[in-house]
Structure formats: C-alpha cells, structure tokens
Design goal:
alpha+beta; five-stranded antiparallel beta sheet; four-stranded antiparallel beta sheet; about 20% strand; globular
Length: about 290
C-alpha cells in the first residue's frame, strides 16, 4: 500500500473553508430559487456565487437537477463516453412547486477542493423527506466501516445492501464508473484567479485524479471508490468526496462531503453541514451521534 498523502491540520482548515463555501453557495442559491427557473439558470447562478466568493478553480462546474432527474430517470438515452453521460449537464428542465432538486458544486480555493451535494424542494415532498431522513444511516455506516478498515468495495456493497433494505435504488451507480466516492488531492496554489477547464471539469483536479489512477494501479489501490475488485483494499489515507445517492420512484436525494482517512482512523471533515443540521432539527442526529 502506498504512503499516501495525509493532510495536515492547516491543510484541513483550507479544505474546510472550501467545503463551507460550497455549502454556503448551495444554501444561498436555493433560497432564491423559484418555480419556472431552469437547471441551467440555477447552475449559472451557483458559478457566479463561487467566483464572487473566492473560488479560483473547480473539480467540476455546478450541476443542478430537478424533478425525476434527481433520480436520473429523465436522462437522455445516449451512449456514455468513458463512463460519463452528457445528459448529466444542467438542462432546460424548469422547477415546479413541490419538485425535488439537487445542487452539486466542487469549488477550489488556493489549491483546496471540496465537492458537495445539497437537496431540497420548493414546497413539500414527502418522499424527499423520507429519503433525506434515511440518509443519516448511510453516513453512519460509511464512517463506521472505514474506521473498522473494511475494504472499500465491501463498504460500497454494504451501502447497496442498505439501499435494498430500504427499498431504494443506489443511484450513485449511474455516476461515471459507478462511483460512491472519489479522491481529492491538494493542488499547488499558484496564485492565479482562474484555471483551464475542459467540458466543465477543472483540468488540474482531473489530472490529479488520473495520476492517482496510474499510481493506484501500480500500488494496489483505486482513487474511484466503488464495488469493483479494483476497490477491494483497505481505505487509502487522504481525502475522499463521498456521495451516496438514493432513488425512489421519480425522487432522488443525496449528500456529498469530504471524509478524512488516516492510517488508523477516519472522520468527517465537518459536522456543521446542512444535512446534519437538518437531522438535528428533526431529532434524528442526537440519537445517532
């Protein structure tokens, strides 16, 4: 196993800042969302917010999904290229009352990248409430099993088994390479205010992921955490953007946040995140913590 990078306390503060910016963005833009807005409009507003508040790069530019697209039911049937379906990009779907939505953004600030997922509704959606409540179990399960040093592929399969128990579809399997989580690496802070992007993905972050893929293949670990044999290894130290995504009928829900893994332990980068605050408000977090 590789002597993988473990972020220092100072570096973790930088990643925490990036993650809080990402969630601040999602909460601020969701507060201004109204019926009739399109996914593209909302994603563009998120991009503006991030740039206005200090983001200088990204893992990917913001995504927004409305309605059945939150469960990836309405995606155009196109052949995936390298595991990626272009129909994931924000489209012209318009928001309606009581329609679920998911916002996903991944800003970089001075070399520190976050990748978050945030879901909500304008109005009320009982299925979304149920999914969001149940997502607490996935956060607990993943942390417990990483701390126990279970192989990543087995943890991914345990997440799928919990989905089956709940009667949900594991919609993270619709992501490129059926990704439950992916590595995040520290980038060099070169002082620039903008960086090259290709197909809405930041070249520097994707290049690091590709380097991890090559290095991991040589050393026996996978920077893409999924249920495949390539992930059948103990948790690799470093930062992982974890994103369990549940689907039930035409409603999807997820959270995504950074998990810190060391040689012998693991912890979520920050418990002051919207989904944890929501669980606390609903009386779920206290009994789970």
């Amino acid at each position: 196993m590789s002597e993988a990078w473990i972020p220092s306390a100072g570096e973790l503060a930088g990643f925490r800042k990036a993650q809080r910016l990402a969630y601040d963005c999602a909460e601020a833009i969701s507060a201004e969302m109204k019926p009739g807005m399109t996914e593209r409009h909302v994603a563009a507003r998120m991009k503006e917010y991030l740039l206005d508040h200090g983001a200088d790069d990204c893992f990917h530019e913001p995504f927004a999904w409305f309605g059945d697209r939150t469960a990836f039911r309405g995606l155009i049937a196109v052949k995936q290229l390298g595991g990626f379906n272009p129909a994931f990009y924000p489209g012209l779907r318009r928001l309606e009352e009581n329609m679920p939505f998911i916002l996903d953004c991944a800003p970089t600030i001075q070399g520190c990248t976050a990748d978050i997922g945030y879901c909500g509704v304008i109005g009320h959606n009982a299925i979304l409430d149920r999914l969001m409540d149940d997502l607490i179990e996935y956060r607990q399960l993943i942390l417990e099993q990483v701390k126990a040093r279970r192989p990543l592929a087995e943890i991914s399969r345990a997440v799928d088994a919990l989905c089956a128990k709940h009667g949900y579809d594991p919609r993270h399997k619709a992501y490129p390479f059926e990704t439950l989580a992916h590595r995040i690496e520290k980038l060099r802070d070169d002082g620039k205010k903008s960086h090259l992007k290709i197909a809405n993905f930041g070249v520097r972050n994707i290049s690091e992921l590709l380097r991890d893929k090559i290095r991991g293949a040589r050393e026996g670990w996978n920077p893409i955490w999924n249920s495949s044999d390539a992930s059948q290894h103990v948790p690799t130290p470093g930062l992982w953007a974890v994103e369990p995504h549940l689907g039930f009928r035409d409603v999807g829900a997820k959270w995504e946040e950074l998990l810190v893994v060391t040689d012998s332990d693991a912890f979520w980068l920050d418990d002051d995140v919207p989904h944890v605050r929501r669980w606390a408000q609903r009386g779920l977090w206290k009994q789970a913590a």
